[in-house]
Amino acid sequence: MAHVATEYVCFIDSDIVVEHGTLTRLRREFLDPAVAVAGPRILGLPLSPAAGSVAHYEAARSSLDLGSGPGRVAPATRVSYLPSAVLMARVAALGGGFDETMHVAEDVDLVWRVVAGGWSVRYVPQCSVRHDHRVEAMAWLERKAFYGTGADQLARRHGDLVAPLRLDPLCATAVGALVAQRRWSVPVAVIAAGAHLGLMAARAPSPQQRLATGANLTAMTLVATGWQFAGAATRHHWPLAAIAALVSRRARRGIVVAALAEGIADYRRVRPDLDPATYLLLHRADDLAYGLGVWAGALRGRSIRALLPVWTRPWRRGQASPTKTPQKEKTHGTQVV
């Protein structure tokens, strides 16, 4: 990039096949002077008849494929990063460009720095490229773990933006009580959920709609919190879940339910060309490898910041809104690439 003399630059990895019209379509985004970076959808190469299960899984669930929905890119949103496999950018907005000390997650870091600088970053799935995915089992698992190691570096540079969980304290208490499966679980959950409903209802703009608004927001936040708990137990925090499962029958039961429920829901959303059992096994292996990478990065960096949740404060927010999980559109929390 230091040698680029043009107004725009496009980074393209050597294992990418650019489809016709993609670069022209990306260039169109920069007619908006606020746009600094734009990226296309990254799909796999067409599958051969001999393609194995991992190839079919990656075709449906690659970490590089951010889905069919266009959108603004920013931390803790539906599209929280863009892979640097293909990026078009306005040179003046990039500053020093990629941090060359980072060998993983450098693309996430660049996008987040650009967004923090006040620029707009866009995901443009209307155009696409093809990527030569890793489809050998060990190479695939190693790459997933490698992605996970970047969480520690991002946490050092961007703090809570990389947090794997964003939790409302009251709803987290309610869901946590139910997960504990004790005699006091239901009363505690009811009290915590009722307190959240009261807070949301008190801030509804219309007195006539307070109860309905509060109930709707509380229900949405409880569901989102439950999915975050399931994702944490099977992805970022699975080592802790595994330890709990060794000593507690309730924990084992809860982890099995979480692993099955999250996997089945993901299968229904992705609709892969795989049978449910094979997809579920590969999905769990994907999460285990990524989580192992996150913990390896944390141990290497001697910091658990990338594993800590962020606690929201609903009583201090300007508007009542449900707690949302940033991935698993692709992943729970931020999927580091």
From TrEMBL:
Highest taxon listed in the record's lineage: Bacteria
Residues of the Glycosyltransferase 2-like domain: 8-207
Signal peptide range in chain numbering: none
InterPro entries for this protein: Glyco_trans_2-like, MftF, Nucleotide-diphossugar_trans
Keyword Glycosyltransferase: yes
Pathway given in the UniProt record: Cell wall biogenesis; cell wall polysaccharide biosynthesis
Basic and acidic residues compositional bias, start-end: 326-337
Keyword terms, alphabetized: Glycosyltransferase, Transferase
Keyword Transferase on entry: yes
Annotated region described as Disordered, given as residue ranges: 316-337
PANTHER family listed in its UniProt record: GALACTOFURANOSYLTRANSFERASE GLFT2 (PTHR43179:SF12), RHAMNOSYLTRANSFERASE WBBL (PTHR43179)
Family listed: Belongs to the glycosyltransferase 2 family.
Protein name (record): Mycofactocin biosynthesis glycosyltransferase MftF
Organism expressing this protein natively: Branchiibius cervicis
Name of the gene: mftF
